[in-house]
Amino acid sequence: MSKGWLNALTEHPLLKGRVRIVGLVDLDRKVAEARAAEFALSDVVIGSDLDTVLTETKPGLLFDVVVPNARPALVSTGLRHGCHVLTEKPMAPTLESARQMVAEAKAAGKIHAVVQNRRYVPGVRRIRQLIESGALGQLTSINCDFFVGAHFGGFREQMENVLLLDMAIHTLDAARFMAGTAPKAVYCLEVNPPGSWYAHGAAANAIFEFEDDIVFNYRGSWSAEGANTSWEASWRIVGTKGTLLWDGFDRFEAHQVVGTEGFFRDLQPLDIPEMPDASKTEGHASVIADFLDAIEAGAAPETVGSDNISSLAMVFGAIESARLKQRVQISA
């Protein structure tokens, strides 16, 4: 992940020249040294202890690309050193630790935000624009399918709740962004299908209730071979006036009801709005740019922790529902 961040920071037009890297930290110093060499970062401090490197470099920003269980201590250390912190997803390994991060950032007067890069996918933002236009009428349901046979190897294959915790957070955050309102409750069935190469929770079906009578249906699997969906999932967005389909790639289909008679009412096609601001569709670069813009403006970025915790609450609500086998209220 650090390679993706450094590529964005050093090469992307939205970010080039805006940030100077002053230190790299890894538990294995040789890993940090190799990354510094790869990006020709000859004047950086390299170490295996974050506190020591922050003391020496005194940076304004800390980019957090660690595994989830290490995140709470890292974020706390960065805030204590006066850094704004941008962290990988998921925001935290538990909802309680996420709440603590929000409180610590507020107390420090610093911004802690989360890299929810999938909400900066062009399709997601174009769908939100169509919903906001009112062309679909009142939003009634959001439905998505995510089926991918992903053979990562490494830590993911040993994680508990691997699909919900490591991947579904992207899709759930995108759905919350599309809905434009807060999640209230969830019922979830989580399984590890026969033939799964994961230790736990490679598939899940979840029904989320949002405010304004919106239902979000999620079906997903990370051990589904033979017909991969897009990494962005495939979507059906239903409103009182029409429906939008998105395959997660480049194909959109949307129709609005125009007839008033007949068993099936007459439809007319809808155009999907183009993005007026291309800077909002550049994945990691857009998230980081929004983070930097917010710091400079003294404002909150779109993925600030105090808001993004609601997406994390959806994940942990689904995990709790699957454990209890019952409907669970969602509270950030």
From TrEMBL:
Where's the GFO/IDH/MocA-like oxidoreductase domain?
A: 124-244
**Gene3D superfamilies, per database record:** Dihydrodipicolinate Reductase, domain 2, NAD(P)-binding Rossmann-like Domain
Pfam families, alphabetically? GFO_IDH_MocA, GFO_IDH_MocA_C3
Report domain Gfo/Idh/MocA-like oxidoreductase N-terminal positions. Answer: 18-114
| Example GO molecular function | nucleotide binding
Show the PANTHER family listed in the entry. CONSERVED EXPRESSED OXIDOREDUCTASE (EUROFUNG), OXIDOREDUCTASE
The name under which this protein is listed is Oxidoreductase
